[in-house]
Known about the structure:
A seven-stranded mixed β-sheet has the order 9-8-7-10-11-14-13, sandwiched between helices. It contains twelve helices and 14 strands. It has 324 residues and is an alpha/beta fold. Strand 4 (66-72) and strand 5 form a beta hairpin. Zinc ion binds at residues 24, 26-27, 29, 72, 74-75, 77.
Amino acid sequence: MTAMIDLTDGASMTALSFDTRDSCISCGSKHFTTVWSASYEDASIQYYMDKYGYAVDWRSELSGQPIELAQCDQCEMLFHQHILQPASLETLYSEWIDEDQIDTLTESLEHASASTAQFEAATRNVRHILRLNRLLGKQFGNDAQPWRILDFGCGAAEFLKQASLFGFATWGVDFSTTRATQALNQQISIIPSLDSYREDNTDPVHAISLFQVLEHLDQPRETLTDLADVLAPGGILIIEVPNCGTDAEVLGAPRSFEEFRNVHPLEHINAFTPDTLTALVESIGLTKINPGPAHVTDKPDALLRSELTRFYEPKRTNQYFRKG
Length: 324
Ligand SMILES: [Zn+2]
């Protein structure tokens, strides 16, 4: 089902089109319950949307468009029912979001400072690289290096730049023109789709990462299946998504900007809990693994906390999986 938004004020570059999902994006069930229903005319939605600083007049673009977050009765997956069609998603990420928008949103977020956030992201990336090196060495033997890694939705390719420094062979996939341009400026080449990888390469990759990507995809199950196809048997998949709740309580109507970000009806159209993330990925044949600790810290207590994850892994929406 498709609904066009008619734009008469000439403010828009490209009109948006929506699809309505009529089945669960994880298990395919047709039975689900609406847990949050809203409209873009609501004062709270307008307050949150304005913080994003989009490059277009979003009010006229989205007037009359419903917001409905559904939860599957069968598998408990949360997902938005009304989502942008693929061409409109492209419009969102290439026309609504530009460098000014990214700056405005960054200012709206409650990081201690941009430098602190960058430092934390860099140490997090190195922890992933150390874990991958250990897991892949065990699986394939160190003679199989360099590790071939593909970052799907790589943004400005921060992770790949670090992985390259550690000797990994890297590919980045990103369909956002703005972010791809940023990455090109930093001498990292990005391919626009997984098909481009398949056209140029016959070897499967040893690892795939999706950092804050799966929540954006119109067909997450299908994309995961395609990705698993280019992953070597025994290869590792890393996924990080926003955490939208627990078994006991999932996000419904957002009560803060942080909660709104997790279930943003245009951008975060799939809302995962630790359990629904595991269930979706395992349903396509991968197995969740405990990746064990990796230490990039000068704090003994952080090292100890991390060591404990060998024995007890807290439920999180940052997860590792192995193919086969
Ligand atoms: Zn379901």
